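User: Quick one: structure for sequence A, then sequence B.

Assistant: Sequence A:
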Amino acid sequence: MTNGYEFLLFILAIITTWAMYLQLYGKPNPFYSFAQATYMGASFGLDLVVTFLFLYTSGFIPITKGDVFMALGFVLGFATLLRLTKRYAWVSRIPLAIALGTGLGLGIRTQIFAGFLSQIMSLITPFAVPSDAMTSFYNISIVLSTLFMLSFFLYTVQREGPIGISSQIGEYALYIGLGAYFAQVFMGRAGLLVGYMQNITTPAWKTPYSLGIGVLMLAIVIAMDRYGILEKLSD
């Protein structure tokens, strides 16, 4: 068993968890509404605190040490707030344009290296590796699959003959790749769910509380739905 403070946090976590899953009941209920509002409020409060802490450590402290250039960030940040006024809303376009232009430039540079050059360099591999048959198979399959998928996106020629066969193979390769990616995402989400469920059921003393609170909350929602209370709350 644990101390009272940790036990209270565990109970609150269980209530919030099952309240979120009560969305699957299909009707609005006070548990889910409370959990949703609490989560959004806590997230906003945490984001606000982290933002002010970042401004203090990365902006105010350097300014007090003589880095006057950091004051420009505060000026641009304040200028974005002028969007709330009708008379000076146009001023907010200046910091937004700077932020979007800088982000776009950094994003393009990253995409060129990570999403373009690195992909091409990964294809420049020897077909046959005499000492490793499996590596040779991987290299050949990657290069051929890439060429087949590229032929699928050739729209300037008729898909007939070898091009037609290649594009059809590339289409199937795309299906396999997208299906594998979706399965990987699903397994990642399932892994997060399993990990969290293990967290609220281990050690063994947590299991009765987790199941009992979940069943109790579901029974309350069903009873409220049966007597028409959910409809009144949703109106």
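Sequence B:
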Amino acid sequence: MAHWSAMTDVAATSPPSIPERLLALQAVDTEADQLTVQRARHPLREAFATASAELAAWETLRGKLRARIDELTSAIERAEVEGADLTSHKVRLEAQLKTVIAPREAEALMHEIATIDEQRDALDLRELEALEEQSLRDDELSRHLLDEETIRESVRRSDQELSSAVTEIDRELVTLDERRSDLRAGLADTMLATYDRKRAALGVAAATLVGRQCQGCHLDLSAAEVDTVKEEAAATGVTDCPQCGRLLVV
């Protein structure tokens, strides 16, 4: 708060004038605006967002791997049940075949048994493929889980660093808010209403006249305008900039 040192020196000898209070209030509000923007756009927010996105992507992949493993497990279990059913059916057909005398009936039973064998071969192949993929996905998930703590620690660290930075900014904003209240208490309601209206419209409500230039809009006033603002500010030290409409401390 080095920029308040001059104001503090003035306060030590005499109460600050209206122009001094007005400029000090503008300085406080400007710094608060800057801190608010800094709080919202702090670089650590990007680091936290990146770490959070990495964690989200990691969790998404973990979910997909687990879901696929569950699908494969279900497929293997279904194949085992279907295989058992086919085996039972084949056993019944083979037993029936032993009792059949008619050639045509025997041929039909043998064809059905051959069909069951084909179905069982195809089923066994699907089950083997599912078992192999399940093994691969299990290994992939195991490797994936090894990164969990590192990724979560990155998110925790980023969150803590961001929270610490935001907390520090919030402390500064509280200090500025206290200073703002003190400064506003020394200004008339009509002046504050004008200040607040111009601040809402222009961002910077009060500026100084340096030479012929308004430090709010950085435009030069004509000689006639300079004479006019000096006359208007003779009583209070404050008038309106004819170029931008800001409160002009002369």
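The CA atoms of residues 129 and 225 lie 89 Å apart. The chain has seven helices and four strands.

User: Thanks, that's what I needed.
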